[in-house]
């Protein structure tokens, strides 16, 4: 062998041994230079198989931006008993997760009995927002003395016999009357204009990536809902008649562009029982505090129907919002996935459900259930989804 041949062999040996040393010590090097890898560079690329998992991973990234600078004059309101604690904890966890950890709106809890220390402790630990616990004054809660208890009892007994839900309950009636005419008078709520009502054991199924309070304020809205349905007629047999009498007495409060057409098929003669389900509400307390609603509530309260029948705050609020505001001041929040057993509103249209990373099943949304008034609302407002 001549010198140059010997020289080439030595160089080759060095290169080969270097390659093996690197292959064993440096994983990346090994992978990049392995024979099969180098060979694959010359083979035609196989068509990439579509993974069924990739196809569905399309929710947007979490956005943890805090929005605490430009907020509305607003608070959450939760009416609850001490025994509602676990359900209240679940509701607050939901709303914090889906909305309020980024907005930090305050909470006001109300009860006709003092909240226990355990209740306050277990709620306060869930949020960095301000939480206040208020006692309801007796005169805002209990059955007034001028109610004829004999007559009220006869009506309760009849409702129990007729199997009407909460038909025999006085405390349920206290609650409905309080929610209709008093909560917004509570001392702790005087400093706020807007409220968002939350009940124990409800669910918020989607990220709420906007501020519903500011939406209301900017668009001159008064009352917002997520679910609308028919009321049990047996709980409000004389309510609509009193509404009529009130409208005759105070035509000045009835808005020219009202939503009577949503609640009646014959210009107001008969109530079709459609109303907004008030366990979810975002609304303007200054509307409840204003002259029209003040006169309306006082008129209804005097009729005694909160105790002689079982008037709910849902039809009372809904009828007032529909008659004394413009229909354009009513807001349906499609984006807010919401559940109060047994019904759920799940966002519809466009890709709202994906954008909200919703946990509700859109196929089981209550919106077009036979018992829902949503299709009536869509027709009335000329909405298409
Ligand atoms: N402090 C207090 N809160 C009450 C009382 N009764 C009901 N509530 C609250 O009032 C709201 C409505 O009561 P619910 O029992 O949820 O009535 P509902 O929504 O019509 O019926 P379900 O939820 O189906 O039982 C909830 O926030 C309850 O926690 C009461 O006697 N005292
Ligand atoms: C988060 O959302 C806000 C608007 O709500 C937007 O201005 C901001 O750019 C978003 N941030 C990210 C990281 O997507
Ligand atoms: C918030 O609203 C209430 C009720 O309208 C009002 O009394 C209060 O002054 C408002 N606060 C601010 C800071 O605007
Ligand atoms: Mg409830």
UniProtKB/TrEMBL annotation:
<dbReference type="GO" id="GO:0005794">
    <property type="term" value="C:Golgi apparatus"/>
</dbReference>
<protein>
    <submittedName>
        <fullName>Glycosyltransferase family 15 protein</fullName>
    </submittedName>
</protein>
<dbReference type="GO" id="GO:0016020">
    <property type="term" value="C:membrane"/>
</dbReference>
<comment type="similarity">
    <text>Belongs to the glycosyltransferase 15 family.</text>
</comment>
<dbReference type="InterPro" id="IPR002685">
    <property type="entry name" value="Glyco_trans_15"/>
</dbReference>
<dbReference type="GO" id="GO:0000032">
    <property type="term" value="P:cell wall mannoprotein biosynthetic process"/>
</dbReference>
<dbReference type="GO" id="GO:0006487">
    <property type="term" value="P:protein N-linked glycosylation"/>
</dbReference>
<feature type="active site" description="Nucleophile">
    <location>
        <position position="281"/>
    </location>
</feature>
<dbReference type="GO" id="GO:0000026">
    <property type="term" value="F:alpha-1,2-mannosyltransferase activity"/>
</dbReference>
<keyword id="KW-0808">Transferase</keyword>
<dbReference type="Pfam" id="PF01793">
    <property type="entry name" value="Glyco_transf_15"/>
</dbReference>
<dbReference type="InterPro" id="IPR029044">
    <property type="entry name" value="Nucleotide-diphossugar_trans"/>
</dbReference>
